[in-house]
Structures are given as structure tokens and as C-alpha cells.
Amino acid sequence: MKTLRIMLCVIVSSMAVSAQPAPRPSDLPEAVVIKFGWSKERIGWQADPFGGPLENFDEMRVRARNEKRIQDAKRGGSGAEISKAQSDAHTDAVLTAQIHKSTPGRYRFIYKAEIKNMSTKAVKSIDWDYVFLDDQTQEELGRRQFSSLEKIAPGKTKELRFLIATPPTQKVSINSLEKNERANLHEAVVIVRIEYADGSFWQHP
User: Fold this and answer.
1) Is the dihedral of CA 89, 91, 93, 96 positive or negative?
2) Which of 51, 98, 103, 178 has the highest count of CB atoms within 10 angstroms of its CB?
3) In whole angstroms, what is the distance from residue 154 CA to residue 118 CA?
4) Which H helix or E strand runs over 71?
5) Is the Cβ–Cβ distance between 176 and 137 less than 8 Å?
């Protein structure tokens, strides 16, 4: 009888263990945004003798990432995700074309984010978004999307930065420096995807 009780306890215990839900992967990335910011840098003091600036490397990477997001949305996303990816890419293209056509004395924009790798694995690359919201309504006013091919060792911190033609929002001037252009802007940096040196990755849910 005693042996039967022990067997029943073992069976019940094993059923309780098997009934426990499988652990879910963390929704939080193993990286922390320490600080971030953006600024303007004035360029083009003299007219370009060759008829206009060429797309620089950072702008090319931003354009390539936009194209990749559209393709990813078409493969597995909803119609709304496809539409948003196409809209973001179109906005970037229009704003870049606008600044290329502007008169000398225009500005380019520096976007920076300092990231700390909290994982035990080395980071190979990070996709991150710099998001701008209306401080009162929380409406999204602009989203700059970046892919940084930067190795970050475990526990280490690195500053990621881009210099591109696209301003934070359409309300920010590309031809002048205005005092109140940051007014009513709420800013945030969102980590979208992390690829590790061992081939594994984390994806924003």
C-alpha cells in the first residue's frame, strides 16, 4: 500500500510538471539604449559644380533597409504593414529629393544612439528606429529607420550614428536653424532586430 502511494505521488508530480507551460522567449531585447539624440549639421556653403550631391553611404543603407522592410511585409505581413512600410520609404525618398534640390546652405541630420549589449553573445548588427511623436496627442510624426553593422562585445557599449539628408519630421526645416523646432516633440529609440555573431537573432515581437 505504501509503495502504491509513492507511485501515485510520482505520477501526479510528473503530470504537474508536464502541465506547466513551456517558457516563452523574452519580449525584451538583451540590449539597452543608454542615451540618444539628433542634431543638425550645415553643409553646402558653396554651390555643387557637378550638379548636385550623390547619395552617401548612410543614405544608401537607409534606402536598402526600407526596401527590405517592404519585401518582408509583402512576404508575411498584413496589408496595413505593407502600406506603412511603403509610406515610410516614400516619405524618406521625398524628403531626400527635396533637400537635394534645395539651395546651398542646407542641413543634414545626425542621429545617434548609445547601445549597451547586455547579452553574453557578441552583437553583429542592430536595426533600430528613431521615433518622433507629438507630445500632446502621441501621434507618430516621423520614424527614421537604421541598420548598424557594428560589433558590440558582451557588456560593452557603442555609439551608433548616421548622417543623412532626412529630417526628423516634415516640420523641421532643411534650410534653416529654427529655435522651436523641437517643441512638442517626444522622442524614442526602438530596437527592432539584433543579430549576434553566432548567427542567432532577436526580433521585435
Assistant:
1) negative
2) 98
3) 6
4) helix 57-76
5) no
| Beta bridge mates, 203 | 193
Q: Which helix (H) or strand (E) holds 82?
A: helix 79-101
Integer Cα distance of 70 and 73 in angstroms: 5
Judge residue 195's burial from the number of C-beta atoms within 10 Å of its C-beta, 0-12 exposed, 13-18 middle, 19 or more buried: middle
pTM value surpassing 0.90:
no
Render each residue's pLDDT in the chain as its tens digit; 205 residues.
544 444 444 343 443 333 333 333 457 889 999 999 999 888 765 444 444 444 555 566 666 777 777 777 777 767 777 777 677 766 666 666 555 555 445 788 999 999 999 999 999 999 999 999 999 999 999 999 999 999 999 999 999 999 998 999 988 888 777 778 888 899 999 999 999 999 999 998 8
- Find residue 152's DSSP bridge partners: 123
Strand partners, 181: none
Cβ distance 128 to 192 under 8 Å?
Answer: yes
76: exposed, middle or buried (Cβ count in 10 Å: 0-12, 13-18, 19+) = exposed
In this structure, the dihedral spanned by the alpha carbons of residues 68, 148, 28 and 30, taken in order and rounded to 10 degrees, is 140
Strand order in the sheet with 201-203: 140-148, 123-134, 185-196, 201-203
